Amino acid sequence: MAQASAAASSGRNDPAGTKLPEIARDYNFAADILQSNLAAGRANKPAFIDANGNWTYGQLADRAARFGAMLRAKGIRREERILICLLDTIDWPTAFLGALKAGVVAIPVNTLMTESDYEFMLSDSRARMLVVSEALYPKFAELIARKSDLAPDLAHVVVSGNNAHGHDHFETLIAASEPEEYTAPTTRDDIAFWLYTSGSTGTPKGAVHVHASLKLTNDLYAAPTLGLREDDVCYSVAKLFFAYGLGNAMTFPMSAGATTILLADRPTPDGVAALLRKHPVTIFFGVPTFYAGFLASLGMPDRTETHFRRCVSAGEALPADVGKRWSETYGCDILDGIGSTEMLHIFLSNAPGATKYGTTGKPVPGYTLKLIDDHGQTVKPGEMGELLINGPTGAVMYWNNRERSRTTFMGEWTRSGDKYMQDEDGYYVYCGRNDDMLKVSGLYVSPFEVEGALQTHDDVLECAVVAWLDGDGLIKPKAFIVLKNHDKACAELARAMQDHVKAMLAPFKYPRWVEFRAELPKTATGKIQRFKLRAGATPD
Length: 540
Known about the structure:
The protein is built from 16 helices and 28 strands. By secondary structure, the chain is α/β, with parallel strands linked by helices. It is globular, with a radius of gyration of 23 Å.
């Protein structure tokens, strides 16, 4: 199996002229990343640390080879699919890399979805095997019992944990399998894995990705922007099933020979604070809601207890106030960027030494961006438009969804669904999702701009602004706010919030209504589901 060349191609350029890394036609990502670490002498170096201790690169390579052998012994053939619903432990990279090495398509899914979501994913993917954590098994029990009706292609169930519930036991299968040298003869353009979209705007869609994209996200973004080193210790708030987390916690650290801390539990400020006090995390990957919650936590560690070298944010745009407060607290800038399930990881980002809070930065070299209006024409500088991306890591399609594939993947360009504008320095400023934009008195209002103003109020933990109808049926902004201390909620504070926005922005942008909430509806990856808030927008 020919592996990737380290040299840049002399003939393959992106539209902006950046030379793209050359990847040999015959290529298997799992074999490449496992073999390269062994060849670099890291067989005894910890690749992952989970609740059960250290797992070296040598152990991971052995486990992945055994998992691949198990798939072949079970009759799972190349290009067939397995659904992976695992908590973040060593079993996750074992299953994912083992599947790719065997040429089997891995479909890691969100561990916090509903039974109906899993029913859809099993049926839609036609997965031949389900690999599931014991703690998550109850959500699949009924589906498995009725698989002839609900998931007729499902032939095998493997359970990770102590109780396999009568199915194959993950660790027993691994121990019983002989590690094999076999690597499926895949190419760089072979389908390697799918990722279902988060469902923040409706039914999840299966974004189909190829082997080369996993390496390219590292070579284009992680290596040049983050500069990961072999001595780095990484932790990602976003879980491995998330496109953002997959790079953060597996692809990027392994590409540098670094070590990743895996936390099976859902991250909380207190839990992550304990993790940071225990492990010298140098590369920290978060999301805006977590950064805000962490800064508001009474138990957060002080600067002397942390070892941050790089901090990264994605998933949603980072409020400028949150970024500034984090930098003041920990002496490390947050590099805010944007990626997507469709593009696999970050394609637009701030960079070390060139961070501008309140923006998402500049295009990552290797990607070209443009902003278009409602008629598909490129907007003028300073005007707002929909963001389109041209880059080598775009998904092939949405599985079994030709209509959405045709409107999202437009030749070399991928539609993001995000509204942006460029400032005078060339930095991209987030304005909101297409569906979230407000037109007030004939003028567009960015909900994110209003949210950013609200976020600077001392009492605000997090907020969301959506379109709401007034008594005349006209659209006006409404703010849903979670306070740091919910006991302070009152009409007087609501008016103070409105005045706060009026003092910072044009008066027509202030929220006409303020509703305090104990929490905001979110996807399992932490994105606010504004469509659920908008659902109640009847004339007031």
